[in-house]
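Data availability (excerpt). The following record was deposited with the supplementary files.
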Amino acid sequence: MIEIGIIQSLKVVKRTNFGVYLSDGSEERVLLPRKQVPEFVNTGDAIEVFVYRDSSDRLIATTTKPYITVGNVAVLKVKEVTKIGAFLEYGLERDLLLPFKEMTERVHEGKEYLVAMYVDRSGRLAATMKLDDYLTEAEIYGRDAQVEGTIYEINEDIGAFVAVDNRYYGLIPKKEIHGSYHVGDVVTTRVTEVRRDGKLNLSPFKKAYMQMDDDAEKIIKVIEEYNGCLPYNDKASPEVIAHDFDMSKAAFKRAVGRLYKERRIEITEKTIILK
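Predicted structure:
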C-alpha cells in the first residue's frame, strides 16, 4: 500500500504525456507529474518520492523533499491563518493545515512554531502542536547537562513543556518559572532530573552557587537603572522581585546577601543603595 506523508521508493509502471505512474508492487498507483520526473527514467526504475494529496484531494507524488514527514517534528512558518486553522509552509506547493483544535495556543502569520505531522481521519496530512506522543526518551543526557529546546505548550498548573533538541520530552516545572515564557520560545536550560520514564525535568537556572554570580550582576544593573538606589529592599514581595529581576525571592535574597558581604551595596529600611 502506498503510504501518504512519508518518503518512499516506488517503481515506474507507466509513462504518459503528463508524467509517470508509480506503484509499490500492488495495484495502487500514484502520479508523478512530468515536471517532477527525473531525466532518463524508464519503466521499472525506482524513484524516491513523497506522497501527499493535491488541491483536488487526489494522491500525488513529488521528488521535492518536504521539511517534515509523518511522525516527525519540525519548525514551520505560518503562511496564513484562516477560519479553519493555520496553513504552514513545509516545502511543497500545497501548504499544511494546522487545525485550531491542534493548537496549544493561537498562532500568528509569519511566526514559526514547532509541530508534528500526522494523517487525520479523512486521510489528509495535518499538523499538531500537541507533541507529547511524538517526542522520545532522552537517555543521552545526564543531570546538570545544558540543553536547548523549544517550548511547545504551557500549562499554568504544571509548567512549560519543552522539546529538547526538538526531539526529547522536557518540562520546566511551575516552581522553576520566574518571568515570561511563550510557546515557540527557544530556551537554554539545565537538566535537574532524568526521570525513570526518560523524560527530563529542566531549570532555566544554573546551580545555586553559579547562578548567584549572574543574579548578583543582574541586581547591580537594575539598581544602576534606578540611579543607584533601588526603592525597596530584600523584604519586597515576590511579585515585585519577579517583575524587576525575573528571579525568585529566595534567589534575590541570596544574591543581595553576597553583594552585601562584598560591600558593594548598602541595605536600608526601605532601599538598597550602590556603594
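Summary of structural features: The longest helix spans residues 208-225.
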